[in-house]
Fold this protein.
Amino acid sequence: HLSTTTHNYCKLLLTMASIRITENINILLGIPTELLAVIISYVTKDRAEIFSVALINKAIYGVLFNNDAIWRSLTRETFRVTDEKFEHFPKVYSYKVLYSILEKFVPKEGFYVLSETFPWGLLFLFHFVKGFFVGELLIPTEVMGIEPEWENQAYILKPIFKCEFTENQLV
């Protein structure tokens, strides 16, 4: 994570560069997609701010709005995902849409505890599975007397919700 000072400095550099970009737009457009994604991700990871950067110039707008390769690179850079992880993300028509979905749901991934439940509390896992964002209850097999599905199985997962994403998701 960048400090506020570094973040502001990067924004200032981008603003200063935007003045020069109008004179040297071919230099920026000549940067490989992956490198441009790294540069943008150092400035901001917020989709709305990326869109505002695109308003600097028509050529930049064309690169950021109409180039799915830049959004794939931004998604990889911002969310640090591997090809294996990509397999579990929603299958949508563009990486720009996928970026919007991940920006909203990746921060929600993880384990959640409902400690008020007697006697031990409940443990939930929220994550992406086969294109859906799912919530599952982890149930210990030994404590609850549940028959394990295989030998030495410590817990089972019981689905509690599943979010499906459509082609009309946020853009």
The two ends are 25 Å apart (CA to CA). The chain has a mean pLDDT of 79.
